[in-house]
Amino acid sequence: MFDRHQGGESAILVHMDFPIGHSHQQSREDKHEFVELVRSADIEALDILEGKRARPDPKFFIGKGKVEELRQLVVLHKAPQVLFNHSLTPGQEKNLEEVLECRVIDRIGLILDIFAQRAFTFEGKLQVELAQLKHLSTRLIRGWTHLERQKGGIGLRGPGETQLETDRRLLRERIKWIQRRLAKVDKQRQQSRRSRKRAQLPTVAVVGYTNAGKSTLFNRLTESDVYAADKLFATLDPTLRKVHSPATGHIILADTVGFIRHLPHDLVAAFRATLEETRDADLLLHIIDASDERRDENIAEVNTVLEEIGADKVPLIEVYNKIDALDSVQSRIDYDTHKLPERVWLSALMGDGTELLYDAIGEKLGDTVMECKLQLPPQFGKARALLYQADAIANETISETGDWQLNIQLAKKEWNRIKRNSGVDLSLYIE
């Protein structure tokens, strides 16, 4: 559809630095993170062009001297594409491609490409396609430059414009169709969330900056095999598992997509399912790469996103991961002034400290969990059956009088539901 230069599996990178506090500070990006994004997209970095500017150039984003320097690098390496660590306007992309004679992709395009590689669920793929189409719609006119020569000719004034309008209409129709499908998927997800709430199991959502080790920890806790890799956005689709915590009984653990600086607005939609799991959770585990020199900046970025989505009031434990990469740091729990767990230090990869995390979760959810011994007479078989159904019975013995002696552990909401449904005030039979 587009008369553009073809991309490839290698690229020249461009990173510009802007003064802190300047009006163009939103253009400031992290170079290390950019390199990680490129690596995560499985693109080979041939070279990187760096520079400083007071403000972006309206025509090329970088200055004319840098454009010439970049052109020489493209020729030298025979690079099929150039990647910018910044958002470019459609005009800037067009001007750069004309001079460089190769494909030019900005930061948003790069993130979209990674999202397209990582989305595995039907909803995830739809969300990514929607973001791609919205991004594409602003650049559509560039695809038809080969028809411009027709526009001025007598009798040939219309075709180029007509074709462009046709494609705009097709794009709009496809976007509307995707939005309708997503609305249906959203309704189904709301129903499953309501059924989980009826089950009254506490939900613990794993959040954090991308590549902090969330999926590795999730796999460690759930003994599952969610895709985990040393790449940004290794996880895109939210994953939920029911796990048994020694301190709290059964909980729902939700793995989520990682956050990143300056995420494009059109991509926020692709986070929607994840964000809702986060906002509705009973507890957040904020996973932090303890070995990352930029960890304080990353923590601030995650806290900003949590505030934006209305999840900043959800109880939270900071989990400092990857302590195996640090010298002389042992797994431990740090407590706040109220003697509640504030942060846990562990290694998800080695498994060191995961038991402490379970303890911290139990203490943080303490007022939501019921743990006691029951002595139930034989006539209360229905109540016993409901407790078994809820997987709340740790062990059971039978007394000399024939009563069931049960050690139970379950969410208080679930306890109250069983009391209602069994028709028995179980509180009277607590030992």
Per-chain topology:
Layout: E1 10-17, H1 31-40, E2 44-52, H2 64-77, E3 81-84, H3 90-100, E4 103-105, H4 107-118, H5 122-137, H6 148-151, H7 159-199, E5 203-208, H8 214-222, E6 239-245, E7 249-255, H9 265-268, H10 272-279, E8 283-289, H11 295-308, E9 316-321, E10 332-335, E11 341-345, H12 354-364, E12 369-376, H13 381-389, E13 393-398, E14 404-411, H14 412-422
Parallel strand pairs: 1-2, 1-3, 3-4, 5-7, 5-8, 8-9, 9-11
Antiparallel strand pairs: 6-7, 10-11, 12-14, 13-14
Summarize the structure.
The protein is α/β, with parallel strands linked by helices and 431 residues long.
Q: Report the uncertain regions.
A: 22-27, 142-158, 227-231
What is the mean pLDDT? 78
What count of helical segments does DSSP give? Answer: 14
Q: If you compute it from the alpha carbons, what radius of gyration comes out, rounded to the nearest whole angstrom?
A: 27 Å
How big a fraction of the residues is strand? Answer: 15-25%
Which descriptors would you attach to this protein?
431 residues; alpha/beta; seven-stranded mixed beta sheet; 14 helices; elongated
How would you portray this structure in words?
- The chain has helices at residues 31-40, 64-77, 90-100, 107-118, 122-137, 148-151, 159-199, 214-222, 265-268, 272-279, 295-308, 354-364, 381-389, 412-422, and strands at residues 10-17, 44-52, 81-84, 103-105, 203-208, 239-245, 249-255, 283-289, 316-321, 332-335, 341-345, 369-376, 393-398, 404-411.
- It has 431 residues and is an alpha/beta fold.
- It contains 14 helices and 14 strands.
